[in-house]
Design goal:
This protein is α/β, with parallel strands linked by helices. It folds into two domains: 78 residues, no CATH class; 317 residues, 3-Layer(aba) Sandwich (Aminopeptidase), CATH 3.40.630. It is built from twelve helices and 14 strands. The chain starts with 19 loop residues before the first helix and ends with a helix.
Length: 428
């Protein structure tokens, strides 16, 4: 769900000046919440692997538009000078030297490494990441609501898990290897909000909160953002949980792509009396659109360079385009339109945007972030009440598959179409 609570930019601090005098006043490590200092030497595998013009083009059009990169990256004729940890710099040598680039040391396989004549999904290792938490945790995340006693609750974490399990069976039948970044309503992280209270205090201090509360009075409490309890909960499910999944993905599962599966929502007002809305839409996200404030953080800047230099975008965009087209055909939903600067359109598909989210940043392989349906729209609520079922049913005057089967079948069709198209183009 791309709808985020007020105060979601927990990790952001003011962007730093580039001058040496300003840099000398900056703390040795500028890190986002719960992050560790990156090892910049790992980026040396990309020395000589990208041309100067290509590097600037990706910064300007995908990763750091509107000059967001210029406070922390300086570009010369043959190199880029990147502010690293403290006042040090990491230097990227462009490929104009005609020196051989180091061997590729990434765990994921490029599409062009696959035989053109093979079945579309054969040999492809896909990690499914059903978004959010289910069960009792959905209440803490505010990803749960119910309209009237005796109705089926709408809980995003449970819905994404059901959809991902349906999709996994279909992908395996089509020849893909499928693994899960998360396959349980319970959190993957061993941390709990009580373990993060000190980090929450520090986070609130960085945000300049002069008045701190220990607890808060539920989702309707207008001052909950000032509380240690609410901030520690946010760090638990928004940060620690995604970091745990990222460690599993990058260190153990090592897939070729990750599909982050979500359902979207509009604001539903009073949680005790949630509002159903007429809007229903969809969109997909690839990694990009970092702000200057985000790039002022060492770990964020490092992760952006990993994504840019390993060329995930060239894999993410066609996958997102094909999945978007398949979902649009299956659902008939219009594209969601961002009106905020935290996302930009990439390519010519009206459904596909670039945005920096913790999951699509930390997962080092290509990531497609899928956001169909508005959970608190009247249409989707009616479909959730119908549950998962075989075949088709008449719902709101339309004969439809269950919402879960429709979602899973469309993603499968989009993936197969993307792989066919990408392999055919490479064979030409």
């Amino acid at each position: 769900m791309t709808l985020r609570r007020t105060g979601a930019a927990l990790a952001c601090i003011a962007a730093m000046a580039w001058s040496a005098s300003a840099r000398a006043q900056v703390a040795p490590a500028r890190l986002s919440a719960l992050a560790t200092e990156p090892d910049w030497s790992k980026l040396n595998q990309f020395q000589g692997s990208i041309a100067r013009d290509d590097f600037i083009h990706l910064l300007d059009t995908v990763y750091a538009p509107n000059g967001a990169w210029k406070q922390t990256i300086k570009i010369a004729a043959d190199s880029a000078y990147v502010l690293a940890s403290g006042t040090s710099e990491w230097v990227l040598r462009f490929d104009e030297f005609d020196a051989p680039a180091p061997p590729r040391q990434l765990y994921w396989k490029l599409i062009q490494a696959r035989p053109a004549g093979a079945p579309p999904l054969s040999g492809l290792k896909i990690a499914l990441d059903p978004g959010h938490l289910g069960g009792k945790w959905a209440h803490m995340e505010e990803r749960w609501f119910q309209v009237g006693a005796g109705t089926v609750p709408v809980a995003e974490g449970d819905m994404t898990l059901l959809t991902a399990r349906l999709l996994a069976a279909k992908l395996r039948a089509a020849g893909a290897e499928v693994v899960f970044a998360h396959n349980n309503p319970e959190p993957l992280t061993k941390l709990r909000p009580a373990d993060l209270r000190d980090a929450a205090r520090e986070q609130l201090r960085r945000q300049g909160m002069a008045f701190l509360r220990d607890g808060y009075g539920g989702a309707a409490d207008p001052l909950r953002m000032n509380s240690i309890q609410w901030t520690s909960e946010l760090l638990f499910y928004r940060t620690a949980e995604i970091q745990a999944r990222a460690q599993l993905v990058n260190d153990v599962l090592k897939p070729d792509i990750v599909l982050c599966m979500h359902y979207n929502a509009e604001a539903w007002g009073d949680p005790a009396k949630p509002e159903l809305v007429p809007k229903n839409h969809m969109h997909l996200l690839v990694n990009g659109c970092y702000s200057a404030q985000e790039l002022a953080l060492d770990d964020v800047r490092y992760s952006m360079l990993v994504k840019l230099l390993s060329r995930t975008y060239s894999e993410e965009l066609p996958l997102a385009n094909h999945i978007a087209n398949a979902l649009a055909a299956a659902t008939g939903l219009p594209p969601y339109q961002y009106t905020t600067p935290n996302a930009i359109r990439v390519g010519d598909n009206p459904y596909v945007w670039a945005r920096d989210l913790l999951a699509n940043r930390l997962y080092e392989c290509p990531v497609v972030y899928i956001e169909p349906y508005v959970m608190n729209s009247r249409e989707v609520w009616d479909r959730v009440q119908a549950g998962n079922y075989e075949g088709r049913k008449l719902i709101d005057g339309k004969v439809r598959e269950s919402i879960y089967e429709e979602y899973a079948n469309a993603v499968l069709a989009g993936l197969e179409s993307a792989m066919k198209d990408m392999r055919q183009k490479l064979a030409q």
